[in-house]
């Protein structure tokens, strides 16, 4: 892994207009990614991980508005033309969506869908291959994600496959051609734990062999610990802590990070893991201060409820947004 910055996100905000008003989902999130890095986005369901990915790819719903800066290789994605954006999606970025059923077209075979993705990527790179070569690339991708009998899967329709198989097809489509950035949104959600481990090993191998960068969104701290170099902890549409994975697990600083780690079941028989009291904030009228304050046992009812904490450095490469711990 080198120090060349591939992606830089600055003060990204995303709002959704609904009947009741405006949902303030992402609130001034900022992070960066260097080439060959594995970055984890971890947090409870509904904290904004998928919205972050959709904002990066500019595939937000029509009722959403976004502002902020997204720099990819120094180019602002919010300012490039639609043809440039399409070309970038075909050659530079890919995404594994959380729901494989909605990601695959039920009226086309797996082979038709994966070859169309490969052809679009090759055409954007001005590479011409015959039909058999394209099919061989597709079959190799299906084999790489550990699907049994790739020829049969190639000829099958999505409804003929299990949920785990459909998810692996989606992963194969994302890694069939060389990309610089892979956004993986809960890639192992519908997979058996053994297959999930194999898929994570595959993604790690892609990082090592191709230099691909990966942003992995998950709520599983076990996955984060094994499959990432650095972690962004998200709560309520905000990043509350960023740091190297080993530092986050060895010395969690934010009360939410500590609470998440306390929820992990222990194999030593030291009692049952407890959940975090309270519920995720509503995005319609979020609190003006720290969004975790209503659930935080350490919160100062004055400052924490009125002023949003800034993300500040606490130690080398370890940043935290909290009034209580007084970072540098």
How large is the radius of gyration? 21 Å
SS strand fraction: 15-25%
Average pLDDT score: 88
- In the predicted model, the low-confidence regions spanning at least 5 consecutive residues are none
- How many extended strands? 12
Please work out how many helical segments DSSP would assign: 12
Structural class: alpha/beta
Strand order of the largest sheet: 6-7-8-3-9-10-12-11
Distance between the termini: 28 Å
Q: Biggest sheet, in brief?
A: 8 strands, mixed
The helix fraction, in percent, is 25-40%
What general form does the structure show?
A: globular
H/E element string? EEEHEEHEHHHHHEHEHEEHHHEE
Task: Tell me what you see in this structure.
- It contains twelve helices and twelve strands.
- With 328 residues, it is of the alpha/beta class.
- The chain has an eight-stranded mixed sheet, sandwiched between helices. A four-stranded antiparallel sheet has the order 2-1-4-5, with helices on one face.
- Strand 4 (64-72) and strand 5 form a beta hairpin.
- It is globular, with a radius of gyration of 21 Å.
- The relative contact order is 0.14.
Summarize it:
Strands 6-7-8-3-9-10-12-11 form an eight-stranded mixed beta sheet, with helices on both faces. Strands 2-1-4-5 form a four-stranded antiparallel beta sheet, with helices on one face.
Please give the structural blueprint:
Layout: E1 5-18, E2 21-34, E3 38-42, H1 49-57, E4 64-72, E5 75-76, H2 82-91, E6 93-96, H3 100-103, H4 110-124, H5 131-144, H6 150-155, H7 163-175, E7 181-185, H8 193-210, E8 213-218, H9 221-227, E9 230-235, E10 238-244, H10 245-250, H11 255-262, H12 303-306, E11 312-315, E12 318-320
Helix pairs in contact: 4-5, 5-7
